[in-house]
Every structure is written in structure tokens, then in C-alpha cells.
């Protein structure tokens, strides 16, 4: 038995529509017979048969449109009674081409996503290819060179001038590393990164510590009142008040909101790094940008978006490098107090212990009230205890007036 | 809503919050957050998810009734009636 | 022992076999095309076999032949092996053009077969130039150039005829007038439909002949070839013929009537020639049957060779853009 | 030091043709008005008298016909020099050049090489207006299978034809109408031109001016003026536009680190476009400034002299462009 296939009548013919069968099942077929009429984009074409035999059965009906190579009818070749059907050339072809198609589907999406990542926020320096390669070979810092080429581009002559200047300088000056552009954060590297940062902090930063106990009754009452009126998904956590209160307190102590790079550089933006511990160990400190300008609701919204992303290790590199000060908060059920280690190059970290009930003297009376122990670790190169003390006092005031946050 | 349904929902959501733990091993009187090491943010997310799944809103003043597996199940069962 | 048409049994058998081979070879090609073994364009000569057979039998091996893209039969008549032609149509490197040309570009320099030219009329100036070279080099070979009546509407036809006559070079122009330039009938393309009238305008002797009758063609061809060879001047022979099949495989034949095709099929040159040979006792029934059998073996051998052929390595792609041994 | 001789570009071309005719009997010149008229630009004046009409053939106005015949003659063993009076008529035989001359070797699987030489005069003449002022070197240089050369100096006007005729593949030679009367001194015994290599016409270290044809003398003049301002420009005559001698200009740019590309052809998709792309591909890290191009203004060339001059790069334009690159 063989299949009669929709013939290919031209390289540009992809399919044909069976208009009419010209032979019936049982008919004797001789080469040259017209078996069917097929409609193509070029018009009606009579389809010729090339082998002798008997038309066994139709496999498609009049009106059907099928691709070239599709079986149209079954034939019993002359002389033979039974025969295994031939393997279909078209089928073979499509199978063979499948893996290729799969590969080509995959590649573009992969490459485009990786391209997107690497091109992110790299500052462009206008420089000729020749000048760039000379500078790279000789370790010349391009940011210090003024270009004299077209449109201010750095050209070979400029780099050579810089090389002469460099040769005159004392050796050993370290060039600043380019900002990291790491994107997906490999889990195992987080521990290493934390270790490195903390070791560096301990090695380089002379820490001083201050602590203050803050009465949280007003803040908690306010929070309960606010949350009572809200759907559960819109409720605020106490940490939101901590973040906002810290941000606001920095207004009067801007020297704590800065970075140390051969001297204190006070930062205009208040980007609060918020310590998120990962269940698998290690921690990440993404920044809540412009926290001083955000309402508590906005800060909560940021947390709702940021924390799941951090846990999935899907932070952008800028979110990890933007912070100007760090907050670590242990929540309700942890230790009473936490003393942080400053995250370089920042100059301060604020630690909030658990909110606990303690006996306190209030208006001359002993009372049980919710309190939080807040610590400040400061870089003694940048600030001293007086600034820190002023900051904690302001923080206290802010938390006593939650309405104003 | 059956007690079984409530419990299986609780287990499912806890597993999502703390994937490396086994919520089924919780004793009825054990503090969930301490046992499974869930911080305040995740705790809130857990309650939000419960609300979405079961349609039960838990006011903040009732948070104290939700600390153990037993009390949480009782509470939800009662609220669902 | 030759009869009045200068035929002896040996030549008679050879010519009949040649035409049967052309027919069968192309029928097989059509089948292989539908099975996607052969791709690109495939133009069949079926119905016109007497023309190539009649003209080429009159030539010497050193004569140059240029043909069109409907040239399988011409290559076969010239003695290019059927298997090598089939391999070419498969695109295999065992083909006569290493598989690079396909159906439309059969070349065999050794056989002085210069294509396989698929720009209509583009090879007419080449033919004139080749004949010019023969004249300049004082060779006594002639150039034969086949083309369709469609080509006679191109400027290059007129330029080539004018130059050939002007320069008095030995070229035989053979117009295979099958009445259709693709799908447009002669009456829609030529103001003067007797193509043979176009030769005298350039001072070229011209003649029309029945292209469905091998005997008449042989007579006309022998005379024309002889004249070109002896005079060294061009000649235009118009062979009025008909293709039974569509222009190419993908052609719905909207432009002509079935009854017209059937009418022409009655004049099929192959049965006509066979009948004549039998009548003249130049061949026996038994011999005819033996030929048919040999034919099938020959075709099968051709297909086997093409099937067993190999693909030219991709690394060879850029070979022969330029000659490999340029003079420095 | 060999003897110098003052000679016009026209005389140099003619000397080249004459030498070729004397050198090989198979060489002949064919073209419109090459004989009795003496050549449209008097390049072949008196050659008819010297060599006779078999070797110096006047042809009718039928570019497809006689270019095709030239190709055919070369296929059959002759060495034709086909003159297309000007490139402006070069589109008429384009089919012959592209579909036959450039294609036959590859299409026949390496069997048929086409050793024809086609000369065309080219470029802006003297106020010949839009239809007679074309610079179509890029059009021909686009086609694989052709060797395309450009005669930018007197030395090449005399020395290029010989090598072109020795080449086994079709060579298109572009000559420049506007340079015909230009006088220059050439060495009497200067040999034949290597048409596979570009030529450094002036060595320099500050910038590479890469050009061909009419651009060569203009660039040399500009380089002279620039040297007075302390700028040392290298001038490269590409000479062969296909296949490009990449090594030459890549080496030069690697030395000077800057490139200005100059030609008269319309700026988009011209030879400079290709040269520029190759510099990017092969010498990107050597560049100390962006590659700049000076090409023809993209308009049909107008008749009035001042507009004609404005439509192609002049010496001052080259000079200014170099200064702008070096002293931004």
C-alpha cells in the first residue's frame, strides 16, 4: 500500500485544495492519469499519477486544503498486495529540523535579557578605540582625562599626556573600583559578601555605640487605631514607623547620613538600607529610597514589594549600593537589644530591639509600658557621641508623635 | 468550612512562607512564629494570605488569638460560622 | 544501406532511442519533482523532442551548442550522460555543473555544450561572439543557438542577428517556436508572427520547418548546417512545434485550451517516427520492445546515480567565483 | 633612475592598447566608433590604420549585442577588449555582464571562465549633464565574479590593460574622461600594473586618504598643501575595487589611526561604504578618530560648471576634511 501525496509543483507551492477527485476507489490507475484537480494560488491544476495501481481509498475530501506532501489517497501498487507505507519525506524533514527551531527560539530571549542587564547604567566615556586600548594597557583612569578629539572625545594624544603625568606621581595610589553591576545574586556569594563587608567594617571603622530606651505606647496605640480601620492587606507594621522616624530624625543630624571616602561626604538623599535576613542564612540590605519624603503607607508599600524580591534574590545592583544609612530591626520576638556593625562606606547603623513591656517611670508613676531599645553605632571618624545623642533624642520625639510622621 | 479544610490551608500557606520547614510537625500549643522562625513581615503576609484564601478578616486586636496552631484553627473555625 | 531519407537501421535505432529517452527522462523528472527530489524550476520539452534530435544529429562534436533553460533533451542528444544530468537536477556534485546549476544550467565544456542559459535571449549575443571567435581563429566549427519564439521579441535577438550577419559569422539560430512565451501566445507578442520573416531583415537566410516531424527536421537541419559551414554565414531555422506539458511544473495552463493540446498531441513526433521506421523496415517490433526495456534500465541507472550522488561541501561554496589559477 | 617621459592620460591609454595588440594576436578591440572615428575620445586614433579592421572593429549601437559577443568570443578562445564608450551606456549590457560574464564560471561548476576585458570611460566630464556624468564604479564592484579596476594615474593607464588581458576572468576597467588631457611624467620602463593590489601613492603618518580614480590626483594635491601646514597625509589608490586589497588600507590605517575616504560616486552605498565597514571590522581598535567620507553629492549631476564642481569632492574639500579630523 502506498500513499498518494499532495505533489509539489513549484518551490513556491505550499499547499493545495482538492477540488475534485477524478478517480474513484477501485479504479485502475495508469501513469499519466489525472487523479484529481487541485486549486493552487496559480489556479486549477490537474494532478497526474506516476505509478500504476488501484485507488484503494480517499484520505482527504473534496474541499480540503492540505500542505504539500500530505497523503491524499491510498493506492495499491500494481502486482503487490501488501506493502509497508513509505516513510514520508516531509515528516522526516520536519522532525529533523525541530531541534534547530527549539534552539533558535531559546537563544534570542536569553541573549536579550543578558544584554539588558549588562548595559545598565554604565557611564559612557567618549574615547577613540585606539585611546581606550592604550589606556587599558597602561592602567590610565579615563575619568580624569579631558578629551581633545571630535566632540571632546579622548584620543591617543590625551592618553599619552595622562601617562606622562602619571609617571610623575608617587606610586601606590589605588584607583577606585568601578561600581559593581552584579544582578542576580548567587546565594552562596551573599555569605561571602556579608563576611567581607563586616570584616572590613571592623577593621577600618572605629565604632562608638549609644543606646536609648523609647516608650512605644503612643506609637503602638496610634498604629492599632490606624490598623483597625484598614483591611488586613493595608495594615502597617511598627517597623514602618521606625524607618520613617529615623529618616525624619536625620534632618537635624545630617552628618549621620553620609559615606566615608577619604573624609565624610554628607548625602542629600535619605536612602535607608533595611536589613532583611534570608531564611537560608545571610542578609541583604536593599535601600528604601527617599524615605524622608515618603508617607508610612508608601514605605509599607515599598517593603511589600521589596522583601519578597529580596527573598527571591532578585534585587537590582543599584538597590544594594544606594543606601546612606542602615536600620536593623529584630521585630517583636527577638532579642531586646541589637548593636549593629556599620556597613561601609556608610557611617551609621540604627538597631531596634524587640518591642517589649517594661516597667517604666511615667509622669512620676511606675507603669508597665511597651518600649523599644534603640542603639546607634557611629563611625568615630565621621561623627562623635554628641551627634549620635542628638539623633536618638530626635528619634524619640518622632515616635512620641506618630501622627506627624 | 470544615476544620480539616482550615488546617490544610494553614499548612499550605505556612509551607509557602517557610519552605524549608515542616508545618505538620507543629504541636497544637506551639507558638507558630517561634517554631518556624517567621518574622513580623512574613507573619503579616501569612495573615493577608489567610484572608484571601478563606475570606476571614482578622482584626489586629485578635492577633494574640492566632499564635498557636490550635488557637488559630479554633479562631478561624469560629469566625467562619 | 540507407533509405531515401539517408537513414540506416543503426542511425534509425539511435534516433528513436534518443527521443524515447528524452521523453521518459522528463516524465521521470516530473515525478521526481513532485516528490521534491528536484527543486527550483523544471521546464519540460515533452512534445518538442524532434527539434533537438533533428538539429543535433547534424552537428560535429567540435560544433558549439547553446540552449535555453528547457535543455534536458539537448544535453541528452549531445551525449551528456543521463545520470550526470539527473545528478545535476538533484543538485549533486556528480552533476555536469557540480550541482550548482540545476535543471536550467546544464554545462559540459568537453561536449561543447554551453548551457543551459536562463535569461531569455541572453545567450544569442554569446553565440554570435563564439562564432566570431571561430572565424577569427579560422576554425571550421559552427555555433548552434537554440531559443524560443519569446526570445525573438527581445532586443538581444535583433542585436545578435544583426551583428552575426554584419560580421558574417557561422552561427545557426534555431528558433523553437512552441507558440507560447510562458503563457502568452505568439499572436499577443509578435506583430509579425512568422519568425522566419525576421531573418531576411538582417540579410540572413531563413526557413520554417515542421517541428513535429523528425524526418523533415533532419532534412532542413542537414541543409542549414551544411550551408552555415560552407558559407561561414548565419542562418535562421524556425521549427514550429508545441510543448504538451505546462510551461513549468507550477502552471495551471489558464492560457490555452485542452482541445488545442489534444490536437497537437495527435502529431506527437515519437509515435510518428516509430511508425515510419516500422513501415520502412528500419526497425522491428522486437527491437522496439528491446529499446523500451533498455530505456527503463537507463532511467533507473540515472536515478540511482543521482540518488547515490553527494553534496558539494559547504566550504566549496566560494570556489569558482574567480578562476583558481589566475595569472599573476 | 630610469628616464621620465611627459605624456597625456589619453596617450598612456593608447600606448597600453597598442602594446596589447602587438603582444598577442588573439587580442582585438571592439567598440562604438573605435575605428574610423578614432575613438569617441580619440584614444584609439590611428590604430585602425595600423592593425586593420579585423583587430579594430567598429560596432553598431547595440551594447548588449557586442558586449555579449565579446563574452562569447572570449569563451571560444579570443582576447577581446570591448570598449563601452562611456559607463553611461553601461546599463544596457548589464545583463550580459552580470548574468553571463560574472556568472558562467560558478554556474558551470568551474568549467567556463570568461577572459574578457571591458573598458568604460567614467565620471564627470566637462558639463555633460545628468545622463553623461555617471560614476558607477560601485554598481559594478557589487558583483562577485567581476574584477573591477580603476585607472587613477598615467602609470596605470598604460600598465593596467596588459595584466587585465592576462586575467582568466572578466575585468572591467574604468577610465576617466576628465583626465584625458592631463599631462604627467611616467617612467619609460615602468612595468605592468599588478591589478590585485592597491598602491600607496604617498606615504604619510598622520592620516590615510583612501581613494581611487579622479580622487588620486586630487588627494595628492591636497596632501601637498597639507604638508605645508605640518600634516603628513598618506594617499592610497585603491586601484582594484573588486576584490578590494584590504591588507593595504588596513595596514595604512593601523599606522596613521585615521582615515578619510574620497570618491566621486554617490555617497550612499559606494566604495567608501565598503572600505569603511572593513576598517571597522579589521582595524577598529587602531582608530583614533571616526572614519570620514567625502562622496559625490546625491543628485543627478547638473549642467552648470559651478554646480557640477559642487557635486563632487574637490581638493579644498579634502584639505578641509583632513584638518577637521586632525584639529577638531
Task: Describe the protein in words.
The complex is a heterotetramer of chains A (405), B (81), C (328) and D (328). Chain A is of the alpha+beta class and 405 residues long. Chain A contains 9 helices and 18 strands. The relative contact order of chain A is 0.10. Chain C has a single domain (9-33, 41-305), classed as Thiamin diphosphate (ThDP)-binding fold, Pyr/PP domains (Rossmann fold, 3-Layer(aba) Sandwich). In chain C, the strands form 2 sheets. Chain C has a 6-stranded parallel beta sheet with strand order 2-1-3-4-8-7, sandwiched between helices. Chain C has a two-stranded antiparallel ribbon with strand order 5-6. The model of chain C has no long low-confidence stretch (mean pLDDT 95). Chain D has helices at residues 9-23, 47-51, 63-75, 94-101, 104-107, 137-141, 154-166, 215-227, 246-256, 271-283, 305-310, 315-326; strands at residues 4-8, 27-31, 56-58, 79-86, 117-122, 147-150, 171-176, 183-187, 199-202, 207-211, 233-237, 240-242, 259-266, 292-296. Chain D has a 7-stranded mixed beta sheet, with helices on both faces. Chain D has 328 residues and is an alpha/beta fold. Chain D folds into 2 domains: 4-187, Rossmann fold (3-Layer(aba) Sandwich); 199-326, Rossmann fold. Chain D is globular and about 60 Å long. The longest helix of chain D has 15 residues, at 9-23. Classes of the chains: A alpha+beta (405), B mainly alpha (81), C alpha/beta (328), D alpha/beta (328). Chains in contact: A-B, A-C, A-D, C-D. Chains A and D meet through helix 2 of A and loops of D.
